[in-house]
């Protein structure tokens, strides 16, 4: 019995070595389980990363679609409001019974009549400017060509209005001045006329320092320019805001086309301005009034445009423009045709009569 009991005890209780082995095996199993669990978590995290990237791309794509839809909606609203505004203007213009139509009509008539009457009343004759001067008309043409070059180099701050104002001030001063000037004085008179015109027409006028250094190359000092400026202003009684041929042309263009930005109309405008600049070079053309000169240049441009682009009813179209221009400028038809013929002769013979003048084409 004792042996059996000892035997059973030996089976139930293991030796210390066996216990150590068991504990080592247990630890190995735990390590394996922990490794397996870590591998599982790593694999799960690797699986989650591409899912998160895909979800981020999808969300970004959805946001872009929403932004595009918002832009389309805003553009649609803008276009609808623009169309409604245009339609409203059309209904006002077409419907004479509209309450706003009478207000606009009265305002336009009042403004146009006042502005047009101002142009007629302030018309100044600039012909015979060299009659009492010892200045050659060829030198005057060279001065005007040089004015185009000077102001063309300041095209970011000056405009055509500055050029036409410069020539008009110079001619008006030479016509009214009791002082007899020679060719040597024309340079100073021309520079000072540009200086006054730039201050009058330009937002950022050409500084006096530039006229002394860059333009006259120190041939005209600031004191000489200031003295000539005083002489011009006092001789003209400070009346230097009179309308030029460009002002009359712009009035005609507005009467016909309002503020239309059609490229064909822009071409007609540029052609008319080019012709007026060419006319200013020719001393004989200054005998034509500024109003008549602008009207004739416009008719010539319209005639040229219609003959090149309109194949139907050319004569009828041209006559309609002529009749309307006569009403605006208050010039008879015989004068218009005579002046248009003079412009045509000038264009054909300009290079022959002025072979050394090239800035008109260079800075057009």
Automatic annotation (TrEMBL):
Region Disordered, annotated ranges: 1-52
Residue span(s) of domain Cyclin-like: 145-234
UniProt feature, compositional bias: Basic residues: 1-12, 22-32
Family statement drawn from the similarity comment of this UniProt entry: Belongs to the cyclin family.
Claim: Phosphoprotein is one of the keywords in the record: no
Lineage, highest ranks first: Eukaryota, Sar, Alveolata, Ciliophora, Intramacronucleata
Protein name, entry field: Cyclin-like domain-containing protein
Top-level taxon: Eukaryota
Keywords: Cyclin
Biased composition (Low complexity): 33-44
Pfam families assigned to the protein according to its UniProt record, in alphabetical order: Cyclin_C (PF02984), Cyclin_N (PF00134)
Transmembrane segments: none
